[in-house]
Write a structure and sequence with these properties.
Blueprint lengths: L1 H7 L31 H4 L21 H4 L3 H7 L4 E5 L5 E12 L28 E6 L3 E7 L6 E11 L1 H9 L18 H7 L17 E4 L12 E4 L16 E4 L7 E3 H9 L11 E3 L10
Antiparallel strand pairs: 1-2, 1-6, 2-5, 2-8, 3-4, 4-5, 7-8, 9-10
Length: about 300
């Protein structure tokens, strides 16, 4: 039923120009990974492109190459509070503020796809210049989006966003991949997981190896509402879904905005230790809280 539903949606979310799409000829892309289009109901009563915000139209808000040229852990923290923007083929723009990330610093990190410096067809983007988008599949049906940083094979996983603009479109994109008759997704749950945010922003594998600093269909912006005089309270916690990687599973390289409702997994101990200035230690199961849903995705 869900497959039929996807086919019935009259959509146009993502066009991928040949000059920026390096994966058009890849044979491993499945038909369901091709861009889907938006119904008129999602485009707003004023017609195509009505869901654009003039609040974000200042080109100076877009982050360029220099922003991405920093060590992996620094970038993971710096990404918090930034706005990820997705421009659809009809001009509609979807925006979400990054509220949770995970750092994978490269070869020395046994939990990383690039552990040991191993380069493959799948993880090539991790070895490309800082700011390169790395999209990979998990469980054969979901996708996760990363951004490369300084360091050989280093990248940051985007784990959760706060939806800011284009929520009707996001709801439709999420609903298209849910079971027929499923309850409507709450706004705070639209992007509160790495695969969820890819669904809500229609991030397909066509974005793999594209440059976030110059791509015409996806980029990062500064949040015009951010107050530089009131820095974010950032929590450092263990990463999700890598429990089998021994000591590397204990590294506090997941970062999120303390108290934000869109964070996928809340770690109470880490929050207390972050507030007190101490590093995270061993945790018990009761100290970790997660909303229902598929956020605890394994990094496979």
């Amino acid at each position: 039923m869900a497959g039929t539903k996807r086919k019935m949606l009259a959509l146009a979310v993502a066009g991928a120009p040949e000059n920026v799409n390096k994966l058009n000829s890849r044979s491993d892309l499945k038909p369901e990974e091709t861009p889907i289009k938006l119904t008129k109901a999602s485009q707003g009563e004023k017609g195509v492109g009505s869901d654009r915000s003039h609040y974000f139209m200042n080109d100076q808000q877009r982050l360029g190459e220099q922003f991405f040229h920093q060590p992996c852990i620094s970038l993971a923290k710096a990404l918090l509070g930034k706005v990820l923007t997705r421009r659809c083929a009809d001009g509609t723009e979807l925006r979400g503020k990054i509220v949770e990330t995970e750092a994978y610093p490269g070869a020395e990190d046994k939990a990383s796809h690039s552990a040991g410096g191993k380069r493959t067809e799948r993880n090539t983007a991790m070895f490309m210049k800082a700011g390169t988008i790395y999209v990979y599949p998990i469980y054969g049906i979901y996708l996760c989006m990363n951004v490369s940083s300084e360091g050989e094979g280093a990248a940051v996983l985007l784990r959760a966003l706060e939806p800011l603009q284009g929520l009707p479109v996001m709801r439709e994109l999420r609903a298209a991949r849910r079971k027929e008759g499923a309850c409507r997704v709450k706004d705070k749950d639209l992007c509160n997981g790495p695969s969820k945010l890819c669904q809500a922003l229609d991030v397909s594998r066509y974005f793999d190896r594209r440059d976030l600093a110059s791509d015409p269909d996806m980029w990062l912006e500064n949040d015009p509402n951010a107050n530089s005089e009131e820095p974010y309270n950032i929590v450092s916690a263990t990463r999700i879904g890598i429990e089998s990687h021994g000591e590397w599973a204990k590294k506090p390289w997941r970062f999120y905005l303390c108290g934000h409702p869109c964070v996928s997994v809340v770690n109470k101990v880490a929050e207390r230790q972050s507030l007190s200035g101490n590093e995270i230690n061993n945790l018990s199961t009761s100290d970790v809280q997660s909303d229902r849903g598929n956020h605890k995705v394994k990094r496979t």
